[in-house]
Amino acid sequence: MNTMLKLVAAVSTAALPLTAAEVTGKVSLKGTPPPEKVIAAVKADANCGKVAQGDAKTRIYLVGPDGGLANTIVYVKKGLEGKTFTAPATKVDIDQAGCMYQPYVSAAMVGQTLAIKNSDPFMHNVNVQPKVAGNKGFNIAQATQGKVDEKSFEKPELGIRFACNVHPWMIAYVSTFENPFFAVSDDKGNFTIKGDLPDGKYTLEAYHQKGGAVTQDIEVKGGKAKADFTIEVKAAQ
Amino acid sequence: MSFRSSRGLFAYAVFTALATLGLICMGGLVTSKGVGMAVPDWPTSFGYNMFALPVNQWFHGGVFDEHTHRLWASTVGVLVVFLVRFLGGVESRRPLAWIGAVEVALGASLLAVGPSWKGAGHFLMGIGGVVLLAALTGFRGQRAAAPLPTLGWLSFWAVQIQGLLGGLRVVLDQWVVGDLTLGLILGLVHGCLGQGFFVLLGVIAFCLSPLWESISLSRPSGPGAGVPFWFGLGCGLVVLQLILGASMRHQHAGLAIPDFPTAYGRWWPDVDSESLVRYNQNRVDESSVTAFQILLQMAHRIGALAVVVSVGMSLGSARSRYGAASPVGRLAAVWLAIVLAQFALGASILWTHKAADVATAHVALGAAALLTGTLLILVARKLSLPECGTAPVGVVPVFAARSAR
Ligand SMILES: [Cu+2]
């Protein structure tokens, strides 16, 4: 059955005109986000204090000097209906180092392998509870340095939370998609979606865990498209 | 073995109740810090027998809180099993022996089921072993007056159910019922039952106390007997507050509103979807809040005011009926002091942005408030009966017979 599915996927992927497309742009933050907090517990913890580098801080809104917003996932939300894609063979690395998850936000295709690693010389547990039916949760203890566990999710879901309960400030988010056309904005807010995205019209969404989501219609022509997004944070009161 | 006087049993019961309050603090800390799943398995810990976990794995971040909670709970379990034995006299030996034997046999048969049941099998055999040991203990003290042995048996079953709930909360953490995970639901029930269990042990200890014996002396003359209305209302409202509070804590929604006494800068917050987006965008916190969670905190605030008012009225009614210097008057004053301190602690949870120790103290003080209210009702009830000391509620001067000997 699985082989059959893969075969179908391979055929349908092959049927698409192959173009090395590139969709680029920048995500900006409008408004004043609340200030990030120093996570004092990292240094205070007997084990984490030894491996922590500098002051660990929350990473809710990482804004570059000219307003670029990091950790925003930009992905093709509409325009690929009915098409199936095979998960890339590359693995998505999620590391636990210095009692923080690295990276904080990542994205993977459904079925793509996530390599969850413990780089610290003591135990972390990785507790994951997806909300979408069909995505299996797990809670595993990684007791030794260098331990890697491989997992994957079968359904698309935004912001699956990874949590360590030994160090409850340790949180990361993984989003999964049915197509490989997604990217996470860098610390300047820039993103590049690369891949064999055929020319045509699509809807892109930029999704930030706290800031929310904005969509935009684009047209890929000659394998190129550009889209800038603005996510607005409004005052609480 | 035998207690030399009823004082010995009283001291043992107080110790058990205090150990339970400590256990509530430890469990509260686990929830405050959100480390309930730091040890992913149960009744084993990282595959080890709970009591054989290497120390270097125990003294480690959230594992410390969760694993200490488990060990502490086991200790309270042992204390309660022996409390049943002491309260029940020799008559308790036979049922304890049966229960212990059945638990050992069940545990042994779990071992036969398969290797994945080994941890559970050993655990159940351990519990059964302790129960058997209590049955074999040659304590010759007589059976305590009714209903103390029954209350003892109640705490016996409560502590085992409570332990099972705590374990299932870990094992079934990810199971979903409706929109909620069993981790949340069972955790909530575990938290509430823990409070009830503490009150039960507090009542047992109180009924063994010299104060309980002497209380009939402060009986008011004339009519007006019965439990004052405000005692009952105050106690009921405290129970409601405990359930609301536990719901907030187990959703980790204690900070659903970050400011106090205002709520998002108003007296009543907006909870439309546009406002919720704004609130959540401005939370430097990994969780997001829902309208339900905001309203839950508002209900808890209103409940707090209602508790303060009804406990204040309780004090007034206790003083006018029994006198300020009477045990009832004093206990009611203690109750009001606890409730006011509890109100202040609740506010400071918000002002300190939910420091884990403040939130946990709030849980422990809530348990103390419920116990105090319950004792007040018991005392008022005892005083309202025509013949103090021999009456049906009559958790009578328990060991009077023996101390006279
Ligand atoms: Cu950790």
What does this structure look like?
The complex is a heterodimer of chains A (237) and B (405). With 237 residues, chain A is mainly β. Chain A is 10% helix and 41% strand. Chain A has 3 helices and 17 strands. In chain A, strand 14 and strand 15 form a beta hairpin. Residues 7-15 of chain A have low confidence and may be disordered. With 405 residues, chain B is an all-alpha fold. Chain B folds into 2 domains: 6-214, no CATH class; 229-383, no CATH class. Helix content of chain B is 68%, strand content 1%. Chain B has helices at residues 6-33, 55-58, 61-88, 93-113, 118-136, 148-171, 182-207, 210-214, 229-250, 273-281, 291-322, 327-351, 356-384, 400-404, and strands at residues 176-177, 180-181. Chain B has a two-stranded antiparallel sheet with strand order 1-2. Chain A binds chain B through residues 33-37, 45-48, 58, 60, 122-123, 125, 127, 129, 137, 139-141, 143, 161, 165-168, 171, 210-212, 233-237, and chain B through 33-40, 46, 57, 59-63, 66, 173-174, 181, 264-266, 277-286, 288.
Biggest sheet strand line-up of chain A: 5-11-10-7-8
**What is the 3D shape of chain B?**
flat
CATH H-level homologous superfamily name of chain A: Cupredoxins -  blue copper proteins
Radius of gyration of chain A: 19 Å
Total individual domains of chain B: 2
Bound molecules: copper (II) ion
The chain-level structural class of chain B is mainly alpha
SS element count, helices of chain B: 14
Task: Give the DSSP E fraction of chain A (strand runs of 2 or more residues).
Answer: 35-45%
Which tags fit this structure?
heterodimer; A: 237 residues; mainly beta; Immunoglobulin-like; 5-stranded mixed beta sheet; 4-stranded mixed beta sheet; B: 405 residues; mainly alpha; 2 domains; two-stranded antiparallel ribbon; 14 helices; 68% helix; flat; binds copper (II) ion
